[in-house]
Amino acid sequence: MACNEKVLEGFICPICMTEFKAPTQLTKHFEDFHNDDPEILKSLKDLFGKAKKKILKQDEIPESFAAAVPNSRQRSPELNWGPQEIGEIKSHTVYFKEIRNARLERYSTETNKLLIRLDKLLNNLPADPVDRKAHERTIVPWIDEKDVKLCPNCAKSFHIARRKHHCRLCGAVMCHNCTVFLSLHDARKMTSPVSVQDDSALSPTSERPISERLVRTGKGLTKLARSPSSGSLNSVLSLVNDSAVGEQHFRICMHCANLLDAREIQKAKHFDKPILCQFYEKMKAYMEEASQNIKMYTKMWESLSEGESTYNLEDAQALRVKIARLGENIDLISKRISVLGTKCVENPPQEQELRLHQMVRVSAMIFLKEVLLTVQALPSEERYTELQEERQKQLEARIAHERQLEEEQREKSREIRKREMWNNEIRPSPKENQPVVEWNQAQGWGPSTVAPKMPSSMDPIIEQMSNLRAYIKQARDDCRYDEVATLENNLRELQSLYFTMNQSNNSDG
Question: Has this prediction a pTM greater than 0.90?
């Protein structure tokens, strides 16, 4: 075919080679221009009909079946099919558990084997590197180095700069980059976490001092040098390449390390508290401390509002500042709990967890609104001075009223005595043999005229006053303001007693 010929596409007339875009146009063209041969027109229509049925996939449907199927528009929507029986039900739970348990048992069995081998390695572990290597090979059989040409993890070939290393737990051969080092301390924690000992308990049995056996590697790490008993090329290269073959580590492969790490993560999930619990416990501790401080603050506020001098205004102000800081901490922690985990893309919190976070935030807001925001404000210094003056006036008025009552009582007692004396003068004198009534102090009256003699040394009282000042400072630091008030009263009593004793000594002198 020549390259310059035009390519015809679409519906082409087989007689005149005219090109059409639709089959209807081609049929009309035959009827108009080529109607002289009816056989060709009939064959063309049959061809188009078969093609149409082929496209619509109606060539295999019999006409009797199509006529028997009613029209969807005429179908009744209220067709009652009657009760239907439930088909066969098959549960895949047993199959799922079998697959899952097999997989879990596989990992758990491998992990248990590693722990058993690790325990055997730690039992009677020699200090000498050569003896230790023989001990490790007796516990875990090593794969022959000649059978491994490439590293099974990174598929890199071994040569003089990339040596072969054996895993101490499975015996597999790995390169240096595909191995990790497990410290003896971590190994003991995995096997027996209760009886973990210090690594210094394992003292080397070699006669050479440790300072002579330490070798500085190219990466800046120190290691214990190998014994000179092995003179092979590998033992010489180990002083340069091997960075942690000393007594403080076990070399293991990545697979064993991942299994042990997965077990430690599972243990941490069982014993460690979630971050939500830690935040909530801290918030509850702040709430309890704030409630206790509010009780003490309320007592101090009532005392100061009455103008009493039991508590200091500065102590009450410091306690109010402390309560405000506790409220800020509670609000901050509740906000952190409300947005906890929302920025995590891999494992975002679910609906119930988000609702729990919101309820914690709501409870904190209710506590702040009903407890902390109801704290009364302290009076200013000027107002407190006015309250003290008012209280002093009330006390003076009360004292004057009580004195007036005492004076009235005395007047009444004097009148009673006068009447008794007048009656005694009128009555006859008592007989001589009648006993005379004597009154003494034990019967309720008789002031003491002898003043107690005080000692000349005041050192014990001064020491007691200094002790009381120290106790007051400690109680104020601990916010024990009831004890502060009691100790200050005792201090004032001691000071007044000391002043009285000094005055008495001066008067005697």
Answer: no
